[in-house]
Amino acid sequence: MSNASSGMGVADHSMNTFMQLKRKKVHRYVIFMIDEKTKEVVVEKTGDPGESYDDFIASLPDDDCRYAVYDFDFVTEENCQKSKIFFIAWSPSISRIRAKMLYATSKSRFRRELDGVHYEIQATDPTEMDLDVLRDRAR
């Protein structure tokens, strides 16, 4: 288990799941949550490669924070198929202040563990991570 400066660790399973998304394209997305009892970042849910961006958005809680990685496939103007991995720090405005603080203080250390992420998005509502936002960032 990796040890974060905030005292928050990263479960080995979390890192392995991220590597499956990155290297083997086993998952379209991975949603992580902080387990306050074990003080580590754990996998809450994974999405199959065939799942849509809407499926991913629907998997995020409306009222609690999460970290997520999303493997975004797109076609460039030169008609090349590309893929970029986004790290999303989801912190809805209605979530508990304690949760927002916990996720904010643990984010940079966890994010550094995820080697291979291309872009990072901080979102407090779904419009801040709309599919168009990903498209614009990926180009």
Quick overview of this protein structure:
The protein has 139 residues and is of the alpha/beta class. It is 32% helix and 32% strand.
Give your account of this protein's structure.
The chain has 4 helices and 7 strands, in the order ββαββαββαβα. Residues 1-5 have low confidence and may be disordered. The chain has one domain (2-138): Severin, CATH 3.40.20. It has helices at residues 12-24, 53-59, 97-113, 131-138; strands at residues 2-3, 9-10, 29-35, 40-47, 66-75, 81-90, 119-123. The protein is an alpha/beta fold and 139 residues long. Actin-depolymerizing protein. Severs actin filaments (F-actin) and binds to actin monomers. Belongs to the actin-binding proteins ADF family.
Count of β-strands: 7
Low-confidence segments: 1-5
Evaluate the radius of gyration: 15 Å
DSSP strand content: 25-35%
Percent helix among the residues? 25-40%
CATH fourth-tier homologous superfamily? Severin
State the helix count: 4
The fold-level CATH name is Severin
How many separate domains?
1
Structure keywords:
139 residues, 32% strand, 7-stranded mixed sheet, ADF-H domain-containing protein, ADF-H/Gelsolin-like_dom_sf, alpha/beta, ADF/Cofilin, disordered N terminus
SSE blueprint and pairings:
Elements: E1 2-3, E2 9-10, H1 12-24, E3 29-35, E4 40-47, H2 53-59, E5 66-75, E6 81-90, H3 97-113, E7 119-123, H4 131-138
Parallel strand pairs: 2-4, 6-7
Antiparallel strand pairs: 1-2, 3-4, 3-5, 5-6
